[in-house]
Amino acid sequence: MLRLAILWRWIYQRRGFLMRALLCWAFSLFFLKFDENGNYDIRFKLRPEQKASQDIVLVTLRASEFTKMYDLKTSTLIHSTELADLNDGFYWDKDIWLSLLNRILKQEPQKVGVAMYFGENVGHFQLSQDDIKIFKDPRVIWAANSSESGKLALPFAARGDKSNIGHMDTVKDDDGIVRRVMTTSDVLSSFSEKLQKKGQAKKIENLSIINYKGRKIFQEISLSDALSPSLPSNFFKNKIVIIGTEKSSSAQIQTPLGLLSRHEFWAQVTENLQTQSFIRKLPGVVYAFFLLGLSVIAILTITHYPQAIALFLLVWVATFTSAFSAWVFDSFYFWIPIVSPLSLLIFVWVLFIGYQALKIEQAHTRLQQQQNYLAELEQLKNNFVSLISHDLKTPIAKIQGVLDRLMTQQDMKPEIQSDLQSLKEYSEELNRYIQSILKVLRVESRDFKILKETADINGVIENVLERLGPLALSKNINLQASLEPMFLIEIDVTLMTEVFLNIIENAIKYTPGNGQVLVRSFETEKDICVEISDSGEGISPEDQEIIWNKFTRGKSQDYKTKGSGLGLYLVKYFIELHGGEISMQSQVGKGTTFLVRLPIEEASVEAEL
Predict the structure, then answer these.
(1) Percent helix / strand / coil, the chain, rounded to 5
(2) What residue spans define the domains of the chain?
(3) What is the pTM of this model?
(4) Could you give the angle at which helices 339-407 and 284-304 cross, rounded to 10 degrees?
(5) Which parts of 508-580 are beta strand (E)?
(6) Tell me: the pLDDT tens digits for 488-512?
(7) CA spacing 20 to 30 A to 489: which of 37, 218, 354, 505?
(8) Which secondary-structure segment (H or E) carries 586?
């Protein structure tokens, strides 16, 4: 129950996201329902030229080849009507058909299919035993005719067991286009099934989708060519020969490739059956899961990448999906939808870009609220610290005044004099802490600005050395300066005084008695450099990375010297405000060297925090 509750809470919290995802999937399933028929037509028209069939030959009968049997008047009528309404009976002539079939059968074809109906429409005529042998040869398959009432009309050459006839019924879609072929009927097998070799007969699955491979994949000859003595003697050997007429209103079928004559159409079906290349479809649930996976990929892409990258990736996915679908369709004859995946990607983009925009707006609102809250908190902190620091300065000053007055008395015992001196040092140390905190608050405030003026950096250094001279003298430290004459630069004198005061004071503080501190200035092509070296204890490698942080001191100095941990933080901050940089080299037991670089030609810099 606990897991179900957690799952329900997770779903409820992301209900907006999940509802959009389900809507995209449902949208793609809706398009999948209407994706099939029109998609076939486009793919058949756009596919590259397919491999020519070597097993099927078409013999096409033209009306002009039969006009010799009619008088001139009838012939003229035939040409004037442009062959618009000729039925199969027009192409019947017993002698011509005997010659044609005899010529073909002598070359031992696999099968001969007559894609024309010759029954009641050819009248009565006499057949000899030799004629019957040819017309009823088991290798010759004749087309049966189904009337509108559904009654089957058999051709004149039908055998008693109906083994040499096949039905040519077609299935038209609502738009009149034939995309599927019927399976075996209750009475007869289809025309294409009967054209298969005996013992190797292949069956057509019910309403198989025809794979139209193009008009030019079959070799086609005319009646004259078939009867010509120049035709090779093995031209029809081991081939399926399908005989039909040129296009006319009564002998053509509407297909995705346009109008095809009946024998062209059945050649397409026969080739599909021979090569087992009917278009195959996977179960609908497979396509549904395919679209679901594509939805997940598209949604994750949009929600995890910037818009420009996400758009590029979705275009790439759409291109890959289309190319893969076309390749599978042409190479393996599997139908994978294209329209529904493309519609899905577009819908996901539109819907989730809006969702992302809403999330960004909400995040921006929350961020603005947090910024306002942090600004108020920062202001409260600054006000509190400023108030406390200011209120502490007054009592400290009073304490120092009382201590100075007491220490001037002459009759004070030495131990009391020593205690008073210690109290004075402690009060001065506390005052320095308070001053450091006030400096940090001032430089981190939003209205802080550096005030540049033209000054000599050597003059600033000399002023600092003069102020720190007594401290160096008290520790018997040799404080030396080697200052080269330099150009004037624009600096904030107050801030740079704090920089050098802090660095040099630290050098004196951490250098043992009788040590040495050297301050050197020099110029390069782009910078003014100030180097401060001491002979102190040095800084350990683990401390060198952290000493620039706020309120951070070296671990080895925590109990040796007093300090707030703000000095080097302010030094680095002030130098960077001037566009410069500070670096350090130190070795334990050998001393430390700080190098300050300030640009000579620095564009006007104003820092606002």
Answers:
(1) 50, 15, 35
(2) 2-44+282-363, 54-275, 364-443, 453-599
(3) 0.59
(4) 30
(5) 516-523, 527-534
(6) 888 989 889 989 988 998 899 888 8
(7) 505
(8) strand 581-587
